[in-house]
Amino acid sequence: MTTIQINHLKYQYPTSDFKLSIDQLSINENLVAFAGQNGAGKSTLFKLLTGLVRPQAGEIIINHQGLAILSPEDRLKTIGIVFQDPSSQLFNATVEKEVAWSLLQTGLDASVIADTVDKALATVGLTDLKDKNPFDLSLPEKKLLAIATVLAINPQIYLFDEPMISLDWPSRQLVTRIMKQLAKEKHQVIAITHDMDWLAANFSKMYVLSDGQVKFEGTPETFFGLPALSAKTGLLTPRIMQIAKEVFGDSRVYLTPEDYMKKHSGN
Amino acid sequence: MANNQQVSLTHLSFTYRHDHDAVLHDITASAPLNSIVGIIGNYNAGKTTLCRILAGIIPNMMAGNLQGDVQIGALSPTQNWSDFNQQTGFVLQDPSSQLSGLADTVADEIAFDLLNHGVDEAAIQQRVVDVAAQLQLTAQLGQSPVSLSGGQLQRLAITTAIVTRPTILLLDDPTSEMDPQGREAFFTWLKTIKDATIFIVSNEIDDLCEIADRLWVLDNGELVSQGTPAEVINSLNSDWQIGTPKVYQLARLMDWTMPDDNNQFPVTVDQLRRCADDDHSNQSSQVSISHQ
Fold it and tell me: Alpha-carbon distance B27 to B21, whole Å?
């Protein structure tokens, strides 16, 4: 099991007033969501977790090891990221080469690489497109390809920045399934999202960021029961709660239509 | 026969030049003028191609083999494009590609098309301020368009599309980069538009059901369903892999059917309210009892 421990972390961009400041935070669960408005600090936190930017103060410790001292190869195997805009992480001539690229950096055997690539492409359903140019893919296909590139490396920790954006209904189901499967296989899966319906339906642990600080840590059930806090952090409630409120004047917490049914089945 | 009060697509098929396979197959669809038509379907279903035809971009700017006919009231995007264009505003999938590239400020960008339409200076200023306020861009009027966030850029593209007061508005996935608050505000605003025929492609099925008069469902280049949101959602085929609105999911689980049709479930909050008022009028009191 992975633990991420953040201590006295501070980061400020040179060109803006925005400041990320996290005093103490430990992430132990396998499936975790970070929510918050645009500009709350979610993507900055991900950049710090991947080592893309270095904090001005404090430290990030992954399994009792400082992130700052990991070698590039260890870092690759420890933590992988799927960016919000998949185009920003694709640059190879074919889908297959795109998935193989990071693996080639690890010095693995060619046959092992070929097998790993095949398996990763099969998981995201892109096997038939392996000879295509990544830039000829549709947006959901690009996102699935970006996920395959990380699956091939199979890091301990997967970061997904707004994974549901630019997906259609079938690819949303597929990506959600993949994320849950990874969590079940004892990977740590951390997603940034502002899709509260998706968060409420699939996560049991969430953190809320606002103005560069962690304002909430706990279950969605608890968070959505605190209307003042969700308003203050600029988050909507799940659609099912809006419906219950508008139609029945009922302000209780419901995470999904199924949750509504369960709470009303009268047992 | 063309009907001047209707949107009608008749046996529309299209194959891009240099492609073998048709992207759209024999599409025949209709909707009343001045209604909102939601176009749904998954990626590669043909939604963007259909938008390009409705906008006249196909065949006037992009070539291929187009068959069949499109008529939006008295206008045809494929036959009299210049007349059609004067009446049309559109928002493409990638809003940054729509910027004129010539304007230093958001205000100038919005005014750009009005200058081309020969509107006088004072009226232009007034209209720019009005539409910017509608799309919550007032604070950005003096900024450079390139400094905007993705969601703001989409709102700017919408603003430039509506400032000429088009009678036809085409929106291809206009909220893809907006945050949930922005999206909610956009759909609330869209519902207030009068006297325009609006085509909107979107994956936001909850919002579409609330605002659309008609839904057209595309699957693999074919129009597989059309009707009111309630008709379409209640007759979805699972092969099309289309999501359903939360209202509908809830009503199905709770078995709350429409008062006038026991085979149909509601798809909007208003319809759900009518179900609740009808045979579930004691629902909310039951709720509190079971929960105490």
Answer: 15
Our CA angle for A219, A220, A222, nearest 5°, is: 70
* Cβ contact B43–A247 (<8 Å): no
- Residue contacts between A and B (CB atoms, under 8 Å): 79
Cβ–Cβ contact A36 with B under 8 A = no
Q: What end-to-end distance do the CA atoms of chain B give, in Å?
A: 62
Name the pTM for this structure: 0.90
Over residues B223-267, the pLDDT tens digits come to 999 999 999 999 999 999 999 999 999 999 999 999 988 899 999
Pick the CATH number of B1-87+166-234 from 1.20.58.340, 3.40.50.300, 3.30.1360.20, 3.30.70.1150: 3.40.50.300
Q: What is the pLDDT of residues A122-181, one digit of tens each?
A: 999 999 999 999 998 988 999 999 999 999 999 999 999 999 988 999 999 999 999 999
Show residues of chain A in contact with B233, CB under 8 Å.
none
Residue numbers in A near B272 (CB within 8 A) = 243, 247
